[in-house]
Give the backbone structure.
Amino acid sequence: MPRWLQPVLLGVTLLMGSLPSSSATLEDRQAAVRALPGSAEAWDRLGQAYARERRFAEAQEAYTKALKLAPASKPVLYHIALTYAWSGNYPEAERRYADLLAQQPRDHELRIDYGQTLAWDQRYAEAAKQYDAVLATNPRHIEALRHRGILEAWQGRYDAALALLDRGLAVEPKNPRLIADRAEVLSWKGDLAAAALGYEALVKLAPKSVTAWLNLARVYAWQGRTRPARETYEKVLVLDPANIDAYIGLARVYRDNLQYAEAEKSLRAGLTHAPTDARLTGELAALAAKKSWNLETLVERIKPVLLVLILSLLARHIWRYRRVLRRRHVAARLLLPTMPALALLIAVVYVLAFIGGAYRHEFAAAAQMLDLAALGALLVLTLTLIWLVRFERPQRRQTVLAIGAHPDDIEFGCGATLLRLREEGARTYGLVLTSGERGYTASGTDAVRRDEARAAANVLALTDLAFQDFPDTRLHEHKEAIRAAIEAALERWQPDILFTHNSHDVHTDHKTVFEATREAARGAYTILCYENPNTPPAFLPGYFIDVSDYLEDKIVALARHKTQMGKSYADPAVIRATASFRGNQARVALAEGFETVRVLEKAAAS
């Protein structure tokens, strides 16, 4: 409940309680003044009846007529002041209360009502003085203790309020109003468990009190105790079938548990008793909005999906490194099976929570606990990955340069190998000598194919990718310049291993790049020659790299070259078949094969 609303609601209750109750209807009071138009008492009672109906202007007219008949009537003057307070005209009410107190300074009830009006006007210090004046005369005055305690609660001083109410309960332990006030203050304080106990005690003392049962149901709902809240609201409706607050409260319980049909049913049942009630129509509109998809609902649905996805991706990453984990490593034995299981459990619990029902809050609480478990698992995973990266995986201190004539040549020839070397710690670079403009006839070819190559490089985690602007299909005309460009790249990146085209390729660009690389790489380099889709059978690799865990990433990288995907050699089945064939030659599942120009094993750096 908003803090600003608490004093207003309680003030309405207190002021309404100040008016004498009567079983006589408004029509009875109107009939009485018609029968006795000269009776000040009849007009006074009619004014009270109008006030209970919140028809304040008519109430004041009735009191005015009563005063004409009995100008000094203290009950009439008191009721006028009370009605001004009730209608929100606090200055006028306070003036009239002050006049009455000047005549009756020892009237405690009058002083308490005056204090209540001051409190409702947020003149808390002056209100406190009125209550303290009563308590100075009678420290055990129950109503003064009640109102003084409530005043403290309105100002957020809940412990002081509870102390005052406890003083009253020490005098009258079974006073229903004190018990109700204490429970309400506890609910404002946020101690819902104690508030529920207070209301439970109250309904035992006053089992027919609709207000007590209604407040107990609200506290149960705030606690998230779905079934007790629902049963208690239903108890209210047994006692008072036309209680609109109960219909609304019950609908909110159903709505919070995603039982939208039951919520709507409750609200429409309330409309049969109050067809024009704005609260019911407003709740129906809110329910319709809740049922529709909005940003808040979308975020609520996406959160568990993202969590499950993150867990699954991390588990997959751990799985990728499973071969470099020692058999005794805890991560291999526990984290690998735990992550998918935890992801599945989270998914199931969130689905049950989203379905709703009487146990939705229990499932939501379980989901929150699983979230914490997942966060713990993520922390362990993060530390495990750091350990893997730093200590467990093979540590390559090498620099690798792959050279290709066109965008996608590197990916076809050694894409999986580059990714494996990169994940094992090597620095990997790519040099593409043309933009492949002859392989794509649409406008803006250079930019399109270069963007595709960069996207593929991101998949392969290349450290850097550089381009040259030599003309596609005419590299043989620029062999010297190409050799110079390769020499510049060697000088720039100082690689240990070079990947380039092979000498058997029938494509003149590929053959030119091979020759330029061999001439430029005169130093201490390992030179490995890869195959491309148009490489003839004369290509006989003798050096193989196991890429069983990396081939699918190679296929993803090649798929980034969207302009080339219509070609038969780009079919993933062809790529898998090639890797399987080379793997069979090397006695592994999947491999990339290379012809060697030179293989050099350098001494390990100290």
Remarks:
- The chain has 26 helices and seven strands.
- The radius of gyration is 42 Å.
